[in-house]
Amino acid sequence: MKQIIAISLVVLGAFTAWGQVPTPGASQSKKILMLGGIAHLGNGAVIQNSAIAFENGKLTIVGDATTMRLDIAYFDEVIKIQGKHVYPGLLAPNSRLGLFEIGAVKATLDQDEIGPMLPHVRSIIAYNTDSKIIPTVRTNGVLLAEIAPKGGVISGSSSVVHLDAWNWEDAAVATEVGIHLRWPDLLKRTGWWAEPGKVVKNDSNLAQVKRIREFFARAKAYCDLPVPAPTNLRYEAMRGVFEGQQTLFVHTNYAREIVQAVNLKREYEIPKMAIVGGYDAYLLTQLLKENKVAVVLGRLHRLPLRPEDDVDLPYKLPGLLLKDSITVCLDYAGDMEVMGTRNLPFLAGTAAAYGLDREKALQLITLNPARIMGIDHLVGSLAVGKNATLFVSEGDALDMRTNAVTMAYIDGRALDLSNHQEALYEKFKAKYEAADQ
Question: Could you tell me the domains of the chain?
Fold first, then answer.
């Protein structure tokens, strides 16, 4: 009987472990040096035989090991990674990680508030660090994410988090980096993806745009007052947009709507704007460049939005925009976006396969999103003084055939790269291997 109880406790403990999210890593206490890796710095440069050191969560050495003199004895831990690839942590913009867990269970969804104009809604406070999905995306090198709300016309503010923390306060890298505005479409698509219907005109487009402009006019007038009274939380939340501390993220795909959004930027002198989706942005590069508007491209792994477009046009969009010096990054928005965020590096790999330089493709998911969010002084590339947020892969991280992350660090903390999907794989692999014997 005692043996049965002991075995039951062991089995129960194993299942409990499989069900748990990995414990956040302890603060860095050792001085670490990595030697011999192929370092992809995230700024377009590559070091074939690198020396990368970090202590107290910050990078202290990033250089060529063949030309440096290093005091090996100074470091507590020396990791030799000859032939392996080192990258800055990948950053997923416009993400619902930690806000969306199980689509069929409403209690696990906290991405959308009721109402049209909600700039004062802060998505960061709903971020769930215990999401089971988060460890699965870290496995492919995605170590940072912009947590963004969804729904309404003005959805609220987004914040950047690192994906290893006890709570949202610990996770926050930068709070309220931007306000998200969903621009009304001129044309509406009926049906759904499996059974698409006709494309019809949205007769209320002009009225909806008018309401947006009226809201911005009132908010701007409020923020221009020396001491506004009484306090209006909605208008107060717009202050960062007008003063340039926050980016206005405008979600739209088509040319006319992008032009309307840029006109809004001009009229209300909004310093920082980014188009999210941006399918037609390549047709308006001169306008975007003149007005310093960035683009967060929607997921590349999809069919074109128009039947007359080239079937591979989505794959070419990053190259078309970068050719005209537009700051552009990639998100994974769309169906299965949260779980699919792990595939973010392979979007960049697809852009590289369609003519983009491989290191420029890497910038689409590292330095460029960090620049758009105003945190490139902290993350986005491997440089002395920046946060030690990086990972090591056995092969090319942008290629699904060779991406195999073996080590990852956030602010110098070593991550546990296990997740429940890997645990289930091992569980059933053992079961069926035993059955074959």
Answer: 23-87 (2.30.40.10), 91-377 (3.20.20.140)
